[in-house]
Write a structure and sequence with these properties.
The complex is a heterodimer. Chain A is mostly helical. Chain A contains four helices and no strands. Chain B has five helices and five strands. In chain B, strands 2-1-3-4-5 form a five-stranded parallel sheet, sandwiched between helices. Classes of the chains: A mainly alpha, B alpha/beta.
Chain lengths: 120, 126
């Protein structure tokens, strides 16, 4: 049996619920699941093109959303990747972008499960 | 006569952050949202809000540039502006205050009290 790692810090979800109830939780997750893969793809494209400014911008945008929703490993990879990109250290960024690419699909699935379990 | 509800301009390109700010502040303030600096400067000049929440990392014109344009405008220069940023690096607060922001809030927003405190403090200023 494969045990799935928890990539979402549910205390962040609880905090959002406190800010704006289930409606906010559902809305934030919907936007993240829709937009985060595009940001990750933009980060990959920027990395492959050696464009540190575009890479930094993509990671910065994803960082904020991932942090707010408690997608912790994605958030941490964005922080590290953005810092590396701001120093122009694109080789260092490779590992962080890979981490985002590996963790983001599972984080999105787990967030979707939270959204589906959240009352309407 | 009832006190009018203060109007806040929210300049933020991320839709999820706008949704969050709306959820936190929408019951107490009238929010006018802008996704980029050009639209924000046009809108703020047309209808001056009571305070601006300004994201730093925006596509095109960034928050620092928008702030400088506000500060150079005689009609807008006294406008309270709070930086909203996910930078959160050591020394950022001092850097943003030195640049002319009136306060500084980091994202992710984990404490709504900090946001309310900053807004209320600045709205009370004569």
């Amino acid at each position: 049996m494969v045990i799935e790692q928890h990539l979402v810090d549910e205390s962040a979800i609880a905090r959002l619920r406190g800010f704006g109830g289930d409606k906010l939780v559902r809305g934030m997750i919907e936007l993240f699941v829709r937009n985060a893969p595009t940001k990750a793809a933009e980060a990959r494209e920027a990395l492959d093109c050696g464009d540190s400014a575009a890479l930094r911008a993509a990671l910065h945008s994803l960082k904020s959303s991932a942090g707010q929703l408690g997608a912790t490993t994605v958030h941490q990879a964005c922080i590290a990747g953005e810092e590396s990109a701001s120093r122009g250290e694109l080789n260092e960024c490779t590992e962080h972008v890979r981490r985002i690419e590996s963790d983001l699909p599972l984080a999105c699935r787990q967030l979707d499960a939270i959204r589906n379990a959240t009352g309407s | 006569m009832a006190t009018p509800t203060p109007t806040l301009a929210v300049v933020e390109d991320n839709a999820d952050n706008r949704l969050l700010i709306q959820a936190i502040l929408g019951d107490q303030y009238d929010l006018v949202e802008y996704e980029n600096g050009a639209d924000a400067l046009t809108g703020i000049a047309r209808s001056k809000p009571d305070l601006v929440l300004l994201d730093i990392s925006l596509p095109g014109m960034d928050g620092n540039e928008i702030l400088q344009r506000i500060r150079r405008d005689q009609a807008l220069r006294d406008l309270p502006v709070i930086a909203l940023t996910a930078h959160a690096m050591s020394g950022d607060r001092e850097k943003f205050l030195a640049a002319g922001f009136d306060d500084y809030i980091t994202k992710p927003i984990v404490d709504e009290t900090q946001l309310f405190t900053a807004i209320r403090r600045l709205l009370k200023k004569p």
